[in-house]
Structures are given as structure tokens and as C-alpha cells.
Design a protein that fits this description.
The protein has 2 domains: about 130 residues, D-amino Acid Aminotransferase, Chain A, domain 1, CATH 3.30.470; about 220 residues, no CATH class. Strand 4 and strand 5 form a beta hairpin. Helices cover about 30% and strands about 15% of the residues. By secondary structure, it is an alpha+beta fold. Belongs to the CDC123 family. Pfam families: D123 (PF07065).
């Protein structure tokens, strides 16, 4: 395992820190400061949106479009599940639910009275300035994907139609952020692996970055590793898929990323050791810098491990891709799928019960 980074090393990898220097070679981004009230909202229990939110208005008949026989990648099924989950985020829906005390059709659900349900309904969030800024950014950029200083809410993509983090409204941005463990990590655990963890910390301002959405080819995303300011390794980012054309492109990938690194990155990023992500599409002559990460866990090493990376001499840049269908690996987001409790939701009554339990924290 490499040496632990310092807090400053981690701060240098925060998007608001590096983007101004690299925006000409990166994805267009709008960066919005977050208030302490909004951070508290993100950390509060429960997933809830404003009472005027457009999310969650789902026809109960749509719930029947998903069955256990549907393919995992079926868009209709994913949309129905996402709509069901989003409807659980409506505080006015929870407050209006209540259970019939004589209903004993499902012993798995704890019955609650109307007054008990009303008591757990959260106060609807109210951040008009941030909402207006998000709307303005979307009007400027088109569809976006959100992230905080370091992380995007990839683990919550199941809650948005299509299973991506593409957002076209402030409601969707709020829902993704509120549903994500990755976002909680940014807020509470970003410096856990730092060598100076116990030094008196300065308060770290938090930002919301809204990045222009592109339908990028997953096959063309690469993770790059730098040690002592030298590019030592490049890995296919999507390790859970085999792309038959990638093994024959190793030399092209190595050349294009190495040239980009030498021209744009090496002398402009302050850390000696770090990881950066690239999008490279040689056929369209597109090459974009996507992100920076600390050269240490919990940063994913894709097709390498830390011991292998530390053992590389750096004389040549090693490029790894999945070279056979037999060598695919589990997705790093494989543990973040639709919750089993949501899969069990089949009727309007189920939604009401699930929502009340979710808001009360009994499903946490």
C-alpha cells in the first residue's frame, strides 16, 4: 500500500480545486457553493423533497410493468422501480398515508396510526436560491450529473429512470444526493485515510458541481496512475465488461493518454502521486480529463491492485484492459442495486406502508 496522503493531497483532488486550471480540457461544469443548512439536510435521516416536487407522480398501474422475469437492464422495469422509489420521498404522501389498524394482511409491516405517521413526516426542504441556481445551470448546460467536492452519487443511480445519474431538474439532483452513501462519505469521511487525520482540521467548504451530461462510451473510459509525477499505468475503467476491440487499441490508448498527460497534467497538478480519469475516443478525436483522485484507498485501482502499482518501475506505461469474457470483474457499483424492500412494493398500499417505515428510520 502506498504512503497515506495528507489532507492537502485530498483537497487538491476536489473538483473545485482543480477544475479552474483544467476546464479547457475537461467537461463543462458549473460549481455552486453549499450552505451549512443544505449539508445538514443531506445528512438528516430519511429521503424527502419539497411538497411541490414533480418527482414521484407515478401511475400505480406502472408498478405492474416489472416482474422477476424481466431482464436487469430493462428500461421499462427500471423506470417503474425508480418511480416507485421516488414516490417514497414525498413528505406530503407520507403524512397522508396512515394504516388501517384492522389490516393484518402482511405481518412484515408494522402497523401505525394516522397520528404516528403524521408525527414522522419531515419538514419539506426549502432552498430556493440553490434550486434557482441548479435550474439556471441546467438551462445553460443541458442535462447534467451532480457531484460534491469528490464524489458523484453513482450508488443511487437506481432511483432515477434509466439507471443513470443524468438530471434534468433540481428535484432529481436533490434526490440523488439525498439517497447516496458516496455523498455521505464526502461529507463525513473524506480524510479518514490521511496521515494527518488527527491534526486540527480547518472547515472545508462544500460545493455542488453540475457537469454537462454526455452519453459517453463506457469502453472509452480509463483510470490512470501517477507516481512521483510519472505516468506508470492505465486501466480500463469499466472492468465488468469485455470489449473485443480494446485489446488491439492498447498502443493507441497509451500514446494518446501519455501525450495528454505530458502536455496538460504533469506540470499543472500539485500532487506527486495521484490517480486521474480520462475519456478517450480516437475515432472522433475526443480526449477529456474527467476527474482526479488520491493515490490511496478507497480509490479504486480497477484492473490493478496497490501492490502491483507500487512494484511497477515506470520505465514503460502498463496498459490493462479486459482481454477475454472470462476475465471480467464485478462492478464496483454492484453492491448498490435496487433495495429488496423496493422490489417488494407492488401496490399503492405497499408504497404507503414502505414510505412510513422509511421515513421513521425503521428501514435504515
Amino acid at each position: 500500500m502506498p504512503a497515506k496522503p495528507t489532507r492537502q493531497h485530498v483537497l487538491n483532488c476536489a473538483l473545485p480545486s482543480w477544475y479552474p486550471r483544467f476546464k479547457h480540457v475537461s467537461l463543462r461544469t458549473e460549481i455552486l457553493p453549499l450552505t451549512s443548512d443544505f449539508v445538514e439536510y443531506l445528512l438528516a435521516d430519511g429521503v424527502f423533497l419539497s411538497k411541490d416536487s414533480s418527482i414521484g407522480k407515478v401511475d400505480p398501474r406502472d408498478l405492474n410493468s416489472y416482474s422477476d422475469d424481466d431482464d436487469d437492464d430493462d428500461d421499462d422495469g427500471a423506470s417503474a422501480l425508480a418511480g416507485t422509489a421516488r414516490s417514497l420521498a414525498q413528505p406530503n404522501r407520507v403524512a397522508a398515508s396512515g394504516f388501517d389498524s384492522n389490516d393484518s394482511s402482511d405481518d412484515d409491516w408494522e402497523q401505525q396510526s394516522q397520528s404516528e405517521t403524521d408525527s414522522i413526516a419531515p419538514t419539506a426542504p426549502n432552498f430556493p436560491e440553490l434550486e434557482a441556481a441548479i435550474k439556471a445551470a441546467i438551462a445553460k448546460l443541458g442535462p447534467v450529473f451532480p457531484k460534491l467536492n469528490w464524489s458523484a452519487p453513482q450508488d443511487a443511480s437506481w432511483i432515477i429512470p434509466g439507471g443513470t445519474i443524468k438530471c434534468v431538474s433540481a428535484d432529481e439532483v436533490f434526490l440523488l444526493l439525498k439517497s447516496s452513501d458516496f455523498i455521505v462519505h464526502d461529507l463525513c469521511h473524506s480524510f479518514d485515510e490521511c496521515s494527518d487525520l488527527h491534526d486540527e482540521p480547518d472547515s472545508v467548504p462544500m460545493f455542488l458541481a453540475l457537469r454537462r451530461w454526455h452519453d459517453l462510451l463506457r469502453s472509452m473510459e480509463f483510470r490512470c496512475f501517477v507516481r512521483n509525477r510519472q505516468l506508470i499505468a492505465i486501466s480500463q475503467r469499466d472492468v465488468s465488461n469485455f470489449y473485443d476491440f480494446l485489446p488491439g487499441m492498447r498502443a493507441t490508448i497509451r500514446l494518446q493518454i501519455a501525450e495528454f498527460f505530458a502536455e496538460h497534467v504533469r506540470e499543472n497538478f500539485p500532487n506527486n502521486d495521484y490517480v486521474f480519469d480520462m475519456y478517450v475516443n480516437p475515432s472522433r478525436e475526443i480526449i477529456k480529463l474527467v476527474d482526479f483522485n488520491p493515490y490511496h484507498a478507497p480509490t479504486s485501482t480497477a484492473l490493478f491492485d496497490w501492490e502491483e502499482l507500487e512494484g511497477l518501475s515506470g520505465e514503460t506505461v502498463e496498459v490493462r484492459v479486459v482481454d477475454s469474457p472470462m476475465n471480467v470483474q464485478p462492478s464496483e457499483y454492484g453492491a448498490y442495486k435496487v433495495p429488496a424492500d423496493v422490489l417488494s412494493v407492488q401496490t399503492t398500499e405497499d408504497i404507503e406502508r414502505f414510505a412510513a417505515l422509511f421515513q421513521s428510520g425503521q428501514l435504515a
